[in-house]
Amino acid sequence: MVTIIRDRIRDQIQRGLTLEQVKASRPTRDYDGRYGATTGPWTTDMFVEAVYRSLTSKAVRPAAGPAQMRASAHSTLAAKINFSGAKYWPLFSR
Q: Domain range for residue 74?
């Protein structure tokens, strides 16, 4: 559900729609009956705005292919375990 809504909003951003236009298009409409809210601490509009802002806070990047995802995972893993020596990389490149 969240991925589908994110993709809808990302497509609308790429087409140049503003936040208000995205909200008016109701990208969550398929899920509003079950998950939507117009009142309370977290409304559907707040959710759409959060997704929109997260996607526009940096350049919208195309989806990564398997090779880029593996490279990204390796970089993240290296950062987490703080290995700086290249001799460790063969262990993680399989």
A: 65-94
